[in-house]
Amino acid sequence: MKYLHTMIRTNDPDASIKFYTEGLGLKLIREHRVEAGKFTLYFIGEDEHGPLLELTHNWGDRSYTIGDQFGHLAYQVDDIYQTCEHLMSLGITVNRPPRDGHMAFVKDPNNISIELLQAGAALAPNEPWVSMQNIGSW
Question: Hey, which residues are catalytic here?
Answer without folding.
Answer: 115
